[in-house]
Design goal:
The complex is a heterodimer of chains A (252) and B (348). Chain A is of the alpha+beta class and 252 residues long. Helix content of chain A is 21%, strand content 37%. In chain A, helix 4 packs antiparallel against helix 5. Chain B is α+β, with helices and mostly antiparallel strands. Chain B has 2 domains: 205 residues; 115 residues, 3-layer Sandwich (Rieske Iron-sulfur Protein). In chain B, a hairpin with a 2-residue loop joins strand 9 and strand 10. Classes of the chains: A alpha+beta (252), B alpha+beta (348). At the A-B interface, helix 1 and helix 4 of A face helix 1, helix 2, helix 3, helix 4 and helix 9 of B. Bound molecules: FE2/S2 (inorganic) cluster.
């Protein structure tokens, strides 16, 4: 009896044999197609960045806290340049303001996990690990030097995700997360990619060098092309772009 | 007193179905994650898991949507339809995993609650390309939840079949929302033409199968519609008329005797020319419709008595479609030859 003439009754325990063979073959075909789909989709994802988040690995650091424009740990080192600057953030989508905001200029020891990509390094603080080492306060924060005034086209990202906590940590699928991060105090970065695909990182501030997270969120300019004209300042090994947020332009 | 809803026995078929389904899902996730991490060692586990769950759910949704039209095109797909609700619920669970994990990952641990964040974190409702695609996915997930939650027969009975059916037609809305969720979301960053191509292929398959099944059903309906437009009337199944006998029907006020003989059907006025005897209660003897009262005879195809007799009765056009006999209510002049309808499966 051919499978087409057999009649399937689902509540009977045994399907007719020819029908069972046909169904089995088709189910295997479906399964094969599904697995081929899995293979193709997973293989054809965009390459993932080499950025690193040392999740679960806690290290100890010593340095001086600066809080303007965003919290960072300044670790002095020998050689050219005065120090390395590590952006500081807290757990989740929170900046480090609450942990270190009151410690501007103080020497501290703290613990945290490294996040790094290209020449940028960040520390996600281990909660409650910051301890001031003495009472001395360095009166002047690092001087920032104006080096250039230029127009950049790039994408605003939240530094924490983009530097390695999430991959991908930019573009539209990540917009909501980046918005939440920046709203929570994570420093916003203007990501500028040149023709060769090399990325430059510009820490965004307002025209006076103050934080601009709230303005970035209010203007909804995250994760899409923007044009920003401003003065580039050098803050140790970081580059800072000072520009009035009301003049930032969305590129449709 | 309501009636009890017994769990339909988890018979052997259902167990095989569920085991195969589960095995398929596990294999899919294993291939996606295994091959994915082998090819992309720098990838983060969260992203991989999100994508594995999301694509598995979407892939399974294609199967769920394809089984219906496939079963209409080929009854050998019916065994897959029989337990489709388990496939639907499995698909919802995968989608829920994708949605819940995304909500935690992208909206959790922030300065507002995750659900608030979902609503406010992408304010670009004014732009198509920048549209908050996550809300589209969340809405689709809500619809899938409604369907998964009402998949049990309890709801089919209590919502009544039409309401339940309408509710479950929302799967097409959910499918559309998910397509937009993918197009306006991940495909904005994952720009490989192969991924967009797979999405389009999936849409072609889903749409194509539905069109093919719909077209086929229309093709079956078409001759009937045509007959109905011409005024023919369905008088019953060919098989219900005993060989060499008639069924009597009233068409347009006239009684018509519809005779079956061999693979053929002919319709005559029921009234014998002799004394109005009921021809339909007669039989076909020696190839002639024979009146039960006094034995007058008529040829079934033209209603004329054999030479040298001159009696004639009106005839009617007949058709056989899909095993059913259709008769035109328009009486032909007595003695008019009408080609007998033939049943293709009954040729001698
Ligand atoms: S009525 Fe038909 S044979 Fe007399």
């Amino acid at each position: 009896m051919s499978a087409a003439r057999e009649f399937y009754v689902g509540y009977l325990p045994q399907a007719p044999p020819a029908l069972a063979r046909t169904v089995r073959a088709r189910v295997l075909l479906f399964l094969g197609l599904g697995l081929a789909g899995a293979l193709l989709i997973t293989a054809f994802q965009q390459p993932f960045s080499k950025a690193v988040f040392e999740f679960g690995k806690v290290r100890s650091f010593e340095g001086r806290i600066e809080v303007r424009p965003y919290p960072m740990l300044v670790v002095e080192r020998p050689g050219a340049g005065d120090a390395s600057r590590y952006l500081l953030v807290a757990f989740g989508k929170h900046g480090a303001e609450a942990e270190v905001g009151a410690l501007a200029g103080r020497r501290v020891r703290l613990e945290g996990s490294l996040v790094y990509r290209d020449d940028q390094t960040m520390i996600e603080l281990a909660e409650g690990s910051v301890e001031a080492l003495d009472d001395s306060v360095r009166p002047e924060p690092s001087p920032s030097q104006a080096v250039d005034s230029r127009t950049f086209v790039g994408e605003i990202v939240d530094s924490k995700c983009f530097l390695g906590v999430m991959k991908p940590g930019n573009l539209k699928p990540h917009r909501a997360c980046a918005t939440r991060c920046i709203s929570g105090g994570i420093p916003p970065i203007l990501l500028v990619t040149d023709a060769e695909g090399l990325a430059s990182y510009l820490l965004l501030t307002d025209a006076q060098g103050g934080p601009v997270g709230a303005e970035v969120v209010a203007r909804g300019l995250v994760a899409e092309p923007v044009r920003i004209t401003g003065a580039v300042h050098r803050l140790g090994d970081l580059r800072v772009l000072r520009a009035d947020p009301s003049a930032w332009e969305r590129i449709e | 007193m309501g009636h009890a809803y017994q769990a339909v026995g988890w018979n052997r078929q259902k167990k095989i179905y569920d085991r195969t389904l589960l095995l398929g899902v596990v294999l899919y996730l294993a291939v996606f994650l295994g091959v994915g991490f082998a090819l992309h060692p720098e990838a983060t586990a969260e992203t991989m898991i999100l994508r594995a769950l999301g694509t598995a759910a979407f892939m399974l949704l294609h199967v769920v949507l394809a089984i219906g039209p496939l079963s209409r095109l080929d009854s050998r797909f019916l065994p897959l339809l029989y337990n489709r609700r388990h496939m639907g619920v499995t698909m919802f669970l995968l989608a829920f995993g994708h949605g819940a994990f995304s909500l935690l990952q992208f909206h959790g641990f922030g300065d507002v609650g995750p659900l608030v964040s979902l609503l406010v974190s992408n304010p670009r409702f004014d732009s198509l390309a920048q549209f908050p695609f996550q809300l589209l996915g969340a809405l689709a997930l809500f619809l899938l939840f409604l369907m998964a939650a009402t998949s049990h027969d309890f709801w089919l009975t209590n919502l009544t079949a039409p309401v339940w059916k309408a509710l479950h037609m929302l799967v097409y809305l959910a499918y559309g929302l998910i397509v937009m969720h993918v197009v306006l979301g991940v495909l904005q960053a994952e720009t490989s033409p192969l991924l967009a191509g797979l999405l389009v292929l999936g849409m072609i398959v889903v749409l194509g199968l539905h069109l093919a099944a719909g077209w086929r059903e229309r093709a079956l309906d078409e001759p009937l519609d045509q007959l109905a437009r011409e005024g023919f009337v369905d008088v019953g199944a060919f098989e219900e008329i005993p060989e060499a006998c008639a069924r009597v029907v009233t068409l347009g006020g006239d009684r018509v005797a519809v005779f079956r003989y061999g693979d053929r059907v002919s319709a005559l006025s029921n009234a014998c020319q002799h004394q109005n005897g009921p021809l339909g209660e007669g039989r076909i003897i020696d190839g002639f419709v024979t009146c039960p009262w006094h034995g007058y005879q008529y040829k079934p195809d033209c209603g004329a008595s054999p030479e040298p007799f001159t009696e004639r009765v009106p005839t009617f056009e007949t058709r056989i479609v899909d095993g059913r006999v259709w008769v035109s209510p328009v009486a032909q002049a007595p003695g008019t030859y009408v080609e007998p309808a033939r049943h293709p499966g009954r040729a001698r």
